[in-house]
Amino acid sequence: MSADAERRSRLLSLKLRALVREHLGLTSDPQGTPEVFSPGAAFLTDEDVWVLIDGDATRSLGATLAWATRLERPIQLLVERDSGVVARRAQFFSASLTVWHVDEKTLLPAVPEPHLPAVEPAASHVALMPLISSSGADAVVEHGIVVGEVRGLEMCRVVDDATTGEARLEVGMGVNDREAFAMVHGEMPTEQALRTVIDAVAIHREPGAMVHPFNQFGAERLHRWRALQNPQSVGFAFLQPANPPVKRTNLKDPVPCVAVGKTIDGQNAVAVFVNGVDLDVVPFAVDAADLHNVERSVVVARDQDVTPSLRRTADLSTVAVSFVSITNN
Fold this sequence. Notes:
By secondary structure, this protein is an alpha/beta fold. The protein has helices at residues 3-24, 61-68, 83-90, 123-126, 129-134, 175-185, 190-202, 213-216, 219-229, 281-291, 308-316, and strands spanning 33-35, 40-44, 49-53, 75-79, 97-103, 106-109, 138-142, 145-150, 153-160, 167-171, 236-242, 257-263, 268-273, 296-301, 320-325.
């Protein structure tokens, strides 16, 4: 741990004990033991496990459950941001867990936040979807945003022109890449530009391709793309892309993605795709099942990424969660 990280950890530990002291109405620090907990800080007393999340808490519940449930005491989870999302997910687990919203020095019971409302893309944005498809990319709508994906990797997006307000298609991976591409290829027709990008990207998204930036991003979405071509490979009769329970903030951080459909045995379910060990994938998956009003969630992952802690977390879920192995890497 770096010196800055160690200093931050100590400050968080002090803050957590102060919050516990204020909440319990004590005149001195409560009796207990500080514990190392990388997403923030933890404090163990005879009665409870107190956990404070540092910063963004939307992906914190899984790590909390994986670590704190082993201690077999009620869990008091303190969050300063996104407490509503954490509380919404926490209600689907049988662990003794209370989520608190930190308001300066006061702890308030966190209130489950409703899901994001469904947003339909603007008609002018939908009108550009045939262009995306005819160029060889997959037109995908996520939370009302129209993008073009090449085997799961976003390589274009429909945006409104800042000057004219008209819908137009920007080519590139992420906003900076799109801006750079426009500077270099501004005179190239959009369809030609998109075809050029698709041809350059697709060869790097093939199984067995050499390591390249185009196959290092969006691996979980590549898994989804393959499953959409062959739903039976992950136990589904059919699948289609679906909104995740929270918006994706960027293209570089690995975040699970979602599809919805019907399993081979006839159950409505979501499939949640992940690449790498993700302690929060189970809370994410049950949240996705709730969003899409289905009774089952299937986590699709590589064998090595399904750890015993993930299975323990799944066992705590009141929503049926199962794991399916990715067979093509």
